Amino acid sequence: MTTLSQIAGAVALARRRYYTDRPESRRRLTKPVISVGNLTVGGSGKTPLVAYLAARLLQRGWRPSILSRGYGRAYVADGVVVVSDGRTVLADLARSGDEPLMLARQLPGVAVLVSPNRHLAGRLAEARFGCDVHLLDDGFQHFVLERDIDLLVVGPDDVSRPLVLPFGRLREPSHKR
Prior knowledge:
36% helix, single chain, alpha/beta, 6-stranded mixed β-sheet, 6 helices
């Protein structure tokens, strides 16, 4: 049982190492990127933390965007789905996913974009909406985009049950960084 988890953990670490050892394979936006992520599958409070950070940045005069993969959406379009331009909610649940739609409704003034290519979404947010800081919701394992800050949400179960998928909740081992 743990052998499969060990293999999954080794693959996850190899993937992380691949991008770490090849900085040329990573893309950078012109504005700062803050990633909020975790080590586990399932809810850990990432999205509420992203909402909190976006609201605080907006209050301080920043023009934040939230870049999401749009996990669980029914209709996956090529390119970028603009869920909100900061003024108007432009996409429905099927095209945006539940968390991006919730964030767009909760945070007027914040652009919310969905795409598996978060670099493309960030470039669009900068060019079209004038965003000057980006928040990645669930971005810790998204290695293609360079981040300026990685915030890792860790709960008690993350350290008390250290098994990697498929027999645990961890996406990657919590050590050997």
